[in-house]
Each structure stands twice: as structure tokens, then as C-alpha cells.
Design brief:
Helix content is 40%, strand content 25%. With 290 residues, it is of the alpha/beta class.
């Protein structure tokens, strides 16, 4: 292949999925207990079990954007070696990372005018980004040109549907996303936020689910409502320290589609949603109605 396909660690793909499609993943930083860690798909610096154990014990976690130097250090060696690069990662609706990426891209384009360096705003979050990258990675492995891959990503990114149910209201409270009163009453009434993604990649609170038993039926309802050609497509089930829920959801979805894959929510998103989150990702029509 005469070009390299890249994403970042907010995609929440497993190492097995990354290896399957041949994408290179730029690690992302998170901080816990005054220490900095880089998150890779293989979670080499801190396992996800350890991360969520710390989160559940009340340890604070903070994430940081990928900086200019990191993008340059990942892109430039390939450009210098005569290869082109295409990158899609965490969206502008969630982070300023993409804007930083574009500064590095423009500088490198001036330095290497004969090379192609393409960066695309994914408009997808977390495992939704992973889902987009996985589908694009299939095309990459099949031999699509860099321009063909760029067009595929641009044509597909707004077709990726995201439905997340957040379980850890305390983590949302700590992150300032809900008030202490809302968290207290939500826990007492077993209310769980249902979250989707708008066309800029921004997380949107769409509705509230009452009771754990209603989580999977709600996700299935939205999958059935919003998906297109489901029987011939792949569905991702994603979880944050909730493998039991992911397996139950996967089992419920399995007969409805071509293939189901499970992926783990890492520290980049797990910092904000906490333990217990469950999600379904698929292609269809984005719909922000409950």
C-alpha cells in the first residue's frame, strides 16, 4: 500500500480489530493520581480493569488533546519516506484535537508538497468512530486508493448512528455534565440518560430510561428504527466495564444483522461516562428523537 491509514485512540477499537484492518492508532493521554498515561488499543500503560476500578473508587481522571508535535511526529516519517497519509479521528464536536491536527497538516503540506496528507473530521464519537474506521479499514485492506478511501469516509460518516446509555451518574456529576441534585434523584429513580450524536459529533442527551431492564430493549428499538439494510451490515456493541450487558445486547442483536462485534470503551471516553455504559453503533439515518 502506498499510503497509511490513521486514527486516534478515542476510536475504542480493540487491538484485534486494529490488526485486522491495518490502521495505525495515535495514542491519547489521560491523567490519574498526578500521573500521565497514554492509551493504546492494547491498553499497555493501564489496563481497562484497573482504570474502571479507580474510577469506581472515586479517583479523578482527566483527558488531554493530541498536540501539534504528536501529529507531526506520526505523520512526517511516512511523508519523508514517500508515503501518503489519511487520518480521521475524534470530531470537532467533542474536542479541539481536529483543529490542532489541521495546523500540523497545513505545515506538513508546505514541507512535502508532492505528498498527499488528508485529514477528515469524522463527526463520530468513541466506538462510533471505531465503527467508521473499521468499515473504512475494510476498504483499505481491499486496496482502495487514498482518494477512494477519503470519499468513502466522507460519504459514510453521517450514516453512523450512535446510541449510548450511561449508567454512572456520579461520573457525569464529577465531570460537570449534570448537577448533584439530578444525579441523586436519577440514582434513586434508576434513571439512565440515553445519548446520541449530532451531525458535528457532539453528544446529545436525547431521553431518559427508567430501570436497568429497559436499557437493552431501548437500544434494540433504536437499532430497528434507524438502521438501513440491517441484515447485510455489521453492528458494534460497545461497553464501559459492562461485559455482561454487552454480551446480552450482542446476543439480542445477533440474529438481526450480518455480524456483531464487541469493543471496549477506553479512558478517553470512559473518563466522562464512567463504568457501566452500553452502546450500539450501526449504519442508518441519524435520528435524535427518543
Amino acid at each position: 500500500m502506498d499510503y497509511v491509514f490513521m486514527t486516534d485512540a478515542s476510536c475504542d477499537l480493540t487491538q484485534k480489530q486494529v490488526d485486522e484492518i491495518g490502521v495505525e492508532v495515535i495514542p491519547m493521554e489521560f491523567q490519574m493520581e498526578d500521573k500521565c498515561y497514554l492509551h493504546y488499543p492494547d491498553a499497555r500503560m493501564m489496563s481497562l480493569d484497573e482504570f474502571y476500578s479507580k474510577i469506581k473508587s472515586g479517583v479523578d481522571s482527566k483527558t488531554t488533546q493530541i498536540n501539534y508535535d504528536t501529529f507531526t511526529n506520526y505523520f512526517e516519517p511516512y511523508l519523508k519516506a514517500g508515503k501518503d497519509v489519511i487520518y480521521t479521528g475524534i470530531p470537532t464536536g467533542l474536542s479541539g484535537t481536529y483543529n490542532t491536527c489541521m495546523i500540523a497538516v497545513n505545515a506538513l503540506k508546505e514541507k512535502y508538497p508532492d505528498r498527499k496528507l488528508i485529514a477528515i473530521d469524522s463527526f463520530c464519537d468513541s466506538a462510533g468512530l471505531g465503527y467508521l474506521v473499521y468499515l473504512a479499514g475494510k476498504k483499505y485492506r481491499e486496496g482502495a486508493s487514498i482518494d477512494e478511501l477519503a470519499k468513502y469516509i466522507e460519504d459514510t460518516r453521517l450514516k453512523v448512528c450512535h446510541w449510548f446509555v450511561v449508567d454512572d451518574l456520579d461520573q457525569l456529576k464529577r465531570g460537570g455534565r449534570i448537577s448533584a441534585v439530578t444525579a441523586t434523584f436519577g440514582k434513586a429513580l434508576q434513571i439512565k440518560p440515553l445519548i446520541s450524536v449530532d451531525n458535528t459529533g457532539k453528544l446529545i442527551n436525547v431521553g431518559k430510561i427508567r430501570g436497568k431492564s429497559n436499557v437493552i430493549p431501548c437500544l434494540i428499538k433504536h437499532l430497528e428504527r434507524d438502521s438501513e439494510d440491517l441484515k447485510n451490515n455489521i453492528v458494534f456493541v460497545a461497553h464501559a466495564d459492562n461485559i455482561e450487558g454487552a454480551q446480552q445486547l450482542s446476543k439480542a442483536v445477533k440474529g438481526m444483522c450480518k455480524e456483531v462485534q464487541i469493543c471496549d470503551i477506553g479512558p478517553v471516553i470512559g473518563t466522562h461516562v464512567g463504568s457501566g455504559m452500553l452502546a450500539v453503533l450501526f449504519t442508518g439515518k441519524r435520528n435524535l428523537q427518543f
